[in-house]
Specification:
Layout lengths: L25 H10 L2 H4 L15 H7 L7 H14 L2 H9 L14 H7 L3 H9 L14 H11 L5 H10 L14 H14 L7
Length: about 200
């Protein structure tokens, strides 16, 4: 980890001991969300072969009112849903009022983690819902910075698609180092750096 992004503790041996929905209470899940045990809590977020579905124990707890008066836990659940790419659950949490700028118990927001892990659909959802693209993580990275760093050091998912989506939505290309040393990433960054230098009425 170089201080801009990375996976601090989410995939520890402890975290990878996945729970089942019947084994955990809401309070223990809330504590796990605050710790960033996202891999371990994955079974609570529905069927991962159907990421667009709003299902699973988290949604059941939401509908039962367990998150009432717990905006911090709601926001951490959103961050976990986006880390996992469970866009159906994430949409349901956003509809319930989850704040995409919060949920930073791990030092990174929902958008940072979705970008880091190449969860393009989650990134597009968060952008559409107004998540700030220039919010800084504990590593002083924007979402674009998190995506570029992870594409170079922890490639997974659709990180190029994430970078493209962020740049198209107006993310500040100057927030990342250029050149990055990756042909496709540098082509995207270079194109948007050139556009940034042209006055909007001349583009």
């Amino acid at each position: 980890m170089d201080g801009r992004s990375g996976t601090p503790f989410l995939e520890s041996a402890y975290a990878l001991q996945m729970i089942t929905p019947t084994e955990t209470s809401f309070e223990s899940a809330a504590e796990g969300l605050r710790r960033g045990d996202f891999s371990r809590l994955a079974p609570l977020f529905g069927d991962h072969s159907h990421p667009d579905a709003a299902s699973g124990q988290i949604v059941a707890w939401l509908e039962a009112g367990a998150f009432a008066g717990r905006p911090d836990v709601l926001a951490e659940a959103l961050t976990c849903a986006c880390w996992l790419g469970q866009v159906g659950v994430a949409t349901r949490l956003l509809d319930a009022g989850a704040d995409p700028t919060s949920g930073t118990g791990t030092g990174m927001s929902a958008l940072h983690w979705a970008a880091n892990r190449g969860q393009r659909a989650a990134v597009e959802l968060l952008i559409a819902r107004g998540a700030p693209m220039e919010q800084r993580s504990m590593y002083d990275a924007t979402a674009l910075g998190a995506a570029v760093w992870a594409a170079l050091h922890e490639p997974r998912g659709d990180q190029l698609g994430v970078i493209r989506a962020l740049l198209t939505a107006g993310a500040d290309v100057a927030a990342v180092e250029y050149p990055a040393g990756h042909r496709e990433i540098d082509a995207l960054l270079g194109r948007h750096r050139e556009l940034r230098a042209v006055p909007p009425d001349e583009r």
